[in-house]
Write a sequence for this structure.
C-alpha cells in the first residue's frame, strides 16, 4: 500500500513536512511517514514503495539503540496502543507511524560529518573549510576526515537550509545549549558509526534534530535514516569518486545527470529509478537492523 495523502485521519494537522504528516493529540503527536521523496528540498510526484516503513523502522531502531546517550521523543509504534480510535487504521498506519511526545523543537539542524561529500565537499573546494572549520589541504571527494566535525545549519520552513558556524549557532540559541548539542551530536555519530561499520556500512554524515521536553534535551523527528544520512558500502569504498550508497544520493545523482535546475516542479522519476531507490532503502533497513524487511 502506497501512502501519500493521510486525510483519512480526522485529527488536527500539526504540521506537514516533505515526507511526514504530523497530527496533534494534545500532549502527544502522531507522525505518519509517507512514501513521498524529496531531493534538493523539492518533493517529487513519484512515491517510493515501502519508503515510509523503512524510514520509520530505522528511526525506531536507532531511538532504542542510542538511549544510553540521550532520550528521544518516541512513545510507541504499536498501532493498538494509539488513542483516538486510530487502531481502526492499522492497515494504513502499521509500520509507518509513531506516537511521540510533543517536543519544543530547537531551530537548527545538527549535522556531523565524518567524510567529505555533498555540500561540505563543495564548501571545502571553495574555501578549504566547512562551517568555519579549517580542514587539511588536498582532501579528495569522500575522504575520511581526521575526526568528525559538527557543521550546523539553519532550519528553513521553506527553501534551503544554510550552513552556519558554531559561533552563529551559539548566537542563535545560546552557547551552553549549542555546546551540548554539538557534544551530543558527535557522541551519537561515533556510536552509530561503529555499529554501522559492524554491518558493513560507512556512515559518512548525518543530521540530528533536537527539542526540549520539560527543559530536557531529546532527539526528535527522524534518526539516522537514508533520508537524513549518507550510508556507503564499506567493501566498495574508494575515495576520490562518488560511493555506492544506500540513501537518496542515487536520486540526486540521477537528477544531476539530467541537469535539472533544482526548482519546482520536480520531474517525474523513471520507473527504474523508483525501483532501484526502493531496493536501496530496503537494503539499508536490512543491513542496519539485521532484520528481513517485511512489507
Amino acid at each position: 500500500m502506497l501512502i501519500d495523502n493521510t486525510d483519512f485521519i480526522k485529527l488536527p494537522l500539526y504540521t506537514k513536512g516533505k515526507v511526514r504528516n504530523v497530527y496533534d493529540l494534545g500532549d502527544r503527536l502522531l507522525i505518519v511517514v509517507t512514501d513521498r521523496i524529496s531531493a534538493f528540498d523539492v518533493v517529487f510526484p513519484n512515491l517510493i514503495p515501502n519508503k515510509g516503513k523503512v524510514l520509520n523502522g530505522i528511526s525506531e531502531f536507532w531511538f532504542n539503540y542510542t538511549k544510553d546517550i540521550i532520550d528521544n521523543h518516541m512513545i510507541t509504534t504499536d498501532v493498538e496502543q494509539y488513542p483516538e480510535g486510530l487502531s481502526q487504521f492499522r492497515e494504513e498506519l502499521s509500520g509507518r507511524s509513531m506516537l511521540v511526545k510533543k517536543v519544543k523543537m530547537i531551530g537548527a539542524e545538527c549535522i556531523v560529518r565524518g567524510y567529505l561529500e555533498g555540500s561540505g565537499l563543495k564548501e571545502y573546494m571553495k574555501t578549504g573549510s566547512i562551517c568555519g572549520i579549517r580542514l587539511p589541504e588536498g582532501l579528495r571527494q569522500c575522504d575520511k576526515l581526521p575526526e568528525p566535525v559538527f557543521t550546523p545549519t539553519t532550519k528553513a520552513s521553506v527553501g534551503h537550509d544554510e550552513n552556519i558556524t558554531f559561533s552563529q549557532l551559539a548566537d542563535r540559541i545560546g552557547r551552553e545549549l549549542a555546546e551540548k548539542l554539538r557534544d551530543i551530536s558527535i557522541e551519537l555519530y561515533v556510536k552509530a558509526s561503529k555499529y554501522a561499520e559492524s554491518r558493513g556500512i560507512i556512515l559518512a554524515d548525518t543530521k540530528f534534530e533536537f527539542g526540549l521536553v520539560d527543559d530536557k534535551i531529546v532527539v526528535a523527528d527522524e534518526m539516522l535514516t537514508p533520508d537524513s544520512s549518507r550510508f556507503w558500502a564499506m567493501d566498495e569504498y574508494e575515495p576520490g569518486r562518488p560511493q555506492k550508497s544506500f540513501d537518496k544520493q542515487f536520486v540526486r545523482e540521477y537528477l544531476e545527470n539530467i541537469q535539472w535546475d533544482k526548482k519546482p516542479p520536480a520531474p517525474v522519476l523513471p520507473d527504474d529509478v523508483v525501483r532501484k531507490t526502493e531496493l536501496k532503502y530496503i537494503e539499508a533497513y536490512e543491513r542496519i537492523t539485521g532484520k528481513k524487511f517485511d512489507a
About this structure: The mean pLDDT is 95. Residues 68 and 125 are 37 Å apart (CA to CA). The domain at 13-102 is CATH 3.30.200.20 (Phosphorylase Kinase; domain 1). The chain has two domains: 13-102, 105-251.
